[in-house]
Amino acid sequence: MPASPPVFSKCPQEAYVLYSIFGIWQWYFSLYQGIGNANLGAQGPVGKIVEAINPIKPSTQALGEFFQALTAMTPLFKAPALIGRLSNTVETALRQSPGVLKQMFPSGTLNSQFVQVNNIYEGLSKIQLYYQANLTTALNLVQTSFSTFLDFSAEGGFIAPQSSLQAQSNLLLSSLQTYIVSSCLSQSDIIMTLARDTNPHEFTVNGSITQPGLISCEYYDQYGVCSTWWYDPTTNLAYALSSTREPQKNYYDLLQQIFSNEWTTPSLLFSGALECAEYVKNNPGVSNAPTLDLVTMRPRCISNVQICVYDQSCGVGDPHCEFTGEYGWGKGDCATKKEYLGSCGQTYSTISYRVPAAYLGPMYRVDGMLEICND
Predict the structure, then answer these.
(1) Model-level pTM?
(2) Which residues contact residue 302 at a Cβ distance below 8 angstroms, ignoring those fewer than 6 apart?
């Protein structure tokens, strides 16, 4: 296949077919080149993610999970189509071509090969080569089967100039990097806490906290982060990272490092984890492993860190009540197994409780002789 547009006869139908062939080839070549040029070695973003989060558990995961995370963004990898049709062109093409879909996303791929999360970059070269091989097979099917070609190109969306390779590559790798961040956090005993209907900034300035200055949240930065929390104004939800081993640890610096280096976005990391938790909750028996939903053609569970929701109905000082426990897939991280409330000290009639750094539970709103600390 030539790397430049074909020369046509004066027949419009021939021009349409030739340009479609060339456009489809461009799309596949963009994917092939994008993953081939990705720096997935120890000195690239992947190695830096592992170094920054430093997962403490020497656990292994199937390479297939990382392959699924990489390929899950493929339907969003924009075809060279007209503005306004970019995202759904590929989605439609894949829906209409189950044979191509099967070649690009074979089930059980690499699930028998495992890699340690803290050395994940050592296995990613296999993923690169495997994905490129799948792309070659799928393209060959489109080029050699007339019926498959008609199905794949029926919408005509491949007749247009090629999109930016760099922008496309960034999209392709965003899901893989997000999943690596998610995996490293999980392997470091870090969970995500969630407070519903809570804006940490307003919470600290509207007088709701009985002890002013306990939460320092003067403003949200460019990423929407304030102290240890990320706030989503569209849903009025406040998220945070919290260690089950070191609950007093503030992860502001780590969040800044993750977002400033564009390893992932707050939405992909936090909102994505909540979407995954909801999906697992509402579909008993499904896995929280990353995947491409072949019905909606959208990625699922690219971020799958455990979500724990603060229980606003907990009684004051109840050492066994912290999270609702509504999400979970057997890890038990949201179930308080021991007394999590420490003591800041007790003087006269003042009772004190030491809560996690990310705490946004009901005790911040309690009136009376009660002292709360989180340092």
Answers:
(1) 0.79
(2) 69, 72, 175, 178, 179, 182, 268, 272, 276, 290
209 within 8 A of 370, measured Cβ to Cβ: no
Cβ distance 149 to 260 under 8 Å?
no
CA distance 35 to 101: 18
What radius of gyration, in Å, describes the C-alpha atoms of the chain? 24
352 touches 373 (CB < 8 A): yes
Is the predicted pLDDT of residue 242 greater than 80, yes or no?
yes
Q: Mind listing the pLDDT tens digit for each residue in 261-282?
A: 999 999 999 999 999 999 999 9
Distances in whole angstroms, Cα of residue 47 to Cα of each of 69, 119, 195? 17, 8, 32
Burial 322-336 (b: 16+ CB within 10 A, else e): bbbeebbeeeebbeb
> What does DSSP say about strands 370-373 and 351-354: parallel, antiparallel, or unpaired?
parallel
| Beta-sheet strands, E only, within the chain | 60-62, 114-116, 190-196, 225-226, 229-232, 237-243, 291-293, 298-300, 307-309, 351-354, 370-373
pLDDT of 257 > 80? The answer is: yes
**C-alpha to C-alpha distance for 162 and 149, rounded to whole angstroms:** 19
Handedness of CA 352, 354, 355, 360 (dihedral sign): positive
Residues in Cβ contact with 105 at an 8 Å cutoff, skipping those fewer than 6 apart = 71, 74, 134, 292, 294
